[in-house]
Amino acid sequence: LRMVSAAPLDDDSVSDEELRPNTLEGFIGQPRLKAQLELFLEAARKRDVPPDHILLAGPPGLGKTTLAMIVSHELGVPIRVTSGPAIQHAGDLASILSSLESGEVLFLDEIHRLPRAAEELLYIAMEDFRVDVMVGKGPGASSIPLTLPRFTVIGATTREGMLPSPLRARFGFTAHLDFYPASELEKLVERSATVLDLHITQTACSELAKRSRGTPRIANRLLRRVRDWAIVHDLSKVDYEDVKSALSLYQIDSEGLDRLDLAVLRTIVTSFDGGPVGLSNLSAMVGEEAETVQTVCEPYLVREGFLVRTPKGRIATKKAWTHLGLSAPEDVMK
Length: 334
Ligand code: ADP
What we know:
The chain is of the alpha/beta class and 334 residues long. The chain contains 14 helices and nine strands. Strands 2-3-6-1-7 form a five-stranded parallel β-sheet, with helices on one face. Strands 4-5 form a two-stranded antiparallel sheet. A hairpin with a 6-residue loop joins β4 and β5 (142-147). α4 runs parallel beside α5. The chain is globular and about 75 Å long. The structure holds adenosine-5'-diphosphate.
């Protein structure tokens, strides 16, 4: 169980709901995206038609579901929520589509994981607002074309590259969500603390923001663990030292690295002299699946400049050596 996982953990679902802003104004950061979306929605409102389909792409925990909810709220229309993996047959999608109300938002999370047949049905529905419904079974089965009211699909994906281009082409608005700078996460932590009715100092908020890997979901999760700390210790206000103590209990360090991230860096540095070392060797040494090391640790370590991936393997940078409290050899990568 990783506290710093950007994917939802079990106890996130409740908090994801209670901490979700429901207006664009309440959505923190991503200023350009917000401005674009505002214009886009305003135009649709003025024309009095449902907006074009929207694609939201980006890593988990950055606000895709939240934005979909905001769009439905801002337009004052209902939202239906489902996901690629939840739809097993084209028929599942057909029955959802044929029950949509006029103007409704259909949120399709992990849209890159839709089965092929459902994908094809979706193309037609998105373009022509039409779906072929199968009636009956066996030789007597027939398909009845059904005209749908206009609606808006909001697709979300963590793997935009996996979307077939005909599907991508059917979205009139595509947004790429990016990791949040610490300054924006700080505002987010402040807002969430207010919602949770937790008193917390500015420096405590900024420390939490710094350790949250640019990811709102992680920031909110760490804040909840800090709230536990405050409850147990009967604190009336949380300060910087409380954040440090609470998070060190969960072994999350000043850069937001957890035990596994540190094990990866330490292994490269101490067992392989800084690298290069291959992924499978490295994973075996830290006792983790290669997949986990690759998809969970490395992206953040690379982004923050602790690790470099080269054709020969992973190399720890000078920043990694320094962070581990070791002095790097002369020729180490910056
Ligand atoms: P995704 O769908 O991209 O995985 P979510 O939309 O579920 O992410 O966001 C995860 C959590 O982070 C939710 O609790 C949400 O309220 C919060 N969150 C994400 N982005 C923002 C934002 N820009 N402002 C405020 N809260 C946010």
